[in-house]
Design brief:
Four Helix Bundle (Hemerythrin (Met), subunit A), about 425 residues, 6-stranded mixed sheet, 15 helices, Gyrase A, domain 2, Rossmann fold, alpha/beta, single chain, flat
């Protein structure tokens, strides 16, 4: 018999309410041991006194509920205890539960892993749920909800179904190949047309995958320029926290400093980099090398200068800082600010927000955010292109089978054992 697992499913105490969840064959008997035998009606919260089965000590007065499987989050019998959120209450109730036979503490992600094993969630939905747990912005939340709600799974299953339909027609063409060549030719041409349409749809989704990844992982904005032009001050004022050390000493910033930023619901990371100059200090030189590397990989570079006649960068935006000193206008499309007085900061932040929205288009579907999904869809597109190009019906059917298999990996139908541990390890205990 499988163990029953228990864990705190809410945040770390102290808190107003703490939720402990049990899942497995002993979930109801374990709860009955704490409430004195009488369980509430299914799917209804009821007030009960919880006592330690071993000593009879009162642990808490809590709301409890039972959810008979398989129509539960885990696909098993599930029980929940809504406790007062004090550390002593939570630890006491957990200790009493874990002392019961057949009950143990859940491992990270084990509740969700059981949901997958019991068919309540497919693998893409599990990945969406993991993303939802760590989502920090509105766009990340929307993307994670779409994935956890099965949007990508339904799309992959739809394309897999079309592959199987074409595969059936290809096998029918084999039956007509010798006796009725004209019928076989018509079937092959119809299959080729459908395959090319599928390839075009897949490639359009793959092209858009970069946007999906930017939503999930966040945009990166590097702040670059010579020493002492105010890069760290700009980072602090945009992030509205003192994340970077500001001093008049050149070379203060060595390693890149990353600060999270929410730009109108789009996640971004602001990167303060070492001042760019010639130096004999090997530590500062390494910081400058890293600064140039981060700028090269960033989605946007803010080139900061305090010189009114600073040259325009080939890529990115020029930020003329210290407007309180020289009061020089910025070229069109670039910005003049003062990090010390705040002048121009609101305009810069507004333009950054618009840039972020233009690059992610929040509200539009963006599903291929995971490398695993992109790889499976790319493999399917390649197999379908090969199927369209094949003149030999036998080779075409084999390519179609490979494409259908690639689509099946999205939901976890095939070839996913190697990714399961990695995915579920991202979850906390209690999820």
């Amino acid at each position: 018999m499988q163990d029953t697992i228990a864990a705190l499913a809410s945040g770390r105490p102290p808190s107003a309410i703490a939720v402990i969840r049990l899942s497995g064959p002993q979930a109801f008997s374990a709860l009955a041991a704490l409430v004195g035998g009488k369980l509430p009606p299914a799917r209804r919260l009821s007030l009960r006194r919880l006592r330690c089965p071993a000593h009879g000590d009162l642990l808490d007065e809590a709301l409890v509920a039972v959810f008979p499987g398989p129509r539960t989050a885990s696909g098993e019998d599930l029980a929940e205890l809504h406790l007062h959120g004090g550390p002593a209450v939570v630890s006491g109730v957990l200790a009493a539960l874990l002392a019961l036979p057949g009950v143990r503490l859940a491992e990270p992600g084990e509740f969700t892993r059981r949901a997958f094993a019991n068919g309540r969630l497919d693998l893409a939905q599990v990945e969406g749920l993991a993303d939802l747990v760590v989502a920090e912005t509105a766009s990340q939340r929307e993307q994670a909800l779409a994935l956890s709600g099965g949007a990508l799974s339904r799309l992959a299953e739809s394309w897999r179904g079309r592959c199987i339909d074409i595969l059936a027609e290809a096998e029918a063409a084999l039956d007509f190949a010798e006796d009725e060549a004209d019928v076989a030719d018509r079937l092959n041409e119809a299959a080729r047309t459908e395959l090319l349409a599928l390839v075009a749809e897949l490639r359009a989704l793959l092209v858009d995958s970069a946007r999906a990844a930017r939503i999930r992982n966040g945009l990166t904005i590097a702040v670059s320029g010579p020493p002492n032009v105010g890069k760290s001050s700009i980072v602090n004022v945009l992030a509205m926290i003192d994340a970077a050390i500001v001093t008049p000493i050149a070379g203060t910033t060595r390693d890149p400093i990353e600060v999270p930023l929410n730009l109108g619901g789009v996640a971004a990371t602001l990167i303060d980099t070492a001042g760019l100059r010639e130096t004999d200090d090997p530590i500062e030189a390494e910081g400058i090398r890293r600064a140039r590397a981060r700028a090269a990989m960033a989605d946007l570079v803010l080139h900061v200068s305090d010189m009114p006649d600073a040259p325009l960068p080939e890529l990115g935006w020029l930020i003329l800082n210290k407007q309180d000193v020289h009061n020089a206008p910025a070229p069109i499309g670039h910005f003049a600010i003062s990090a010390s007085t705040g002048a121009g900061i609101a305009e810069l932040r507004a333009n950054l927000t618009q840039w972020a929205r233009d690059n992610t288009r929040p509200g539009e579907p963006a599903l291929l955010a995971h490398a695993r999904h992109r790889a499976a869809f790319a493999e399917a597109a390649e197999a379908l292109q090969e199927a369209a190009d094949h003149g030999d019906p036998l080779l075409r059917t084999e390519s179609l089978r490979l494409a259908a298999r690639a689509f099946g990996r999205i939901a976890g139908r095939v070839d996913v054992e190697d990714v399961l541990d990695r995915i579920f390890s991202r979850f906390c205990i209690g999820k």
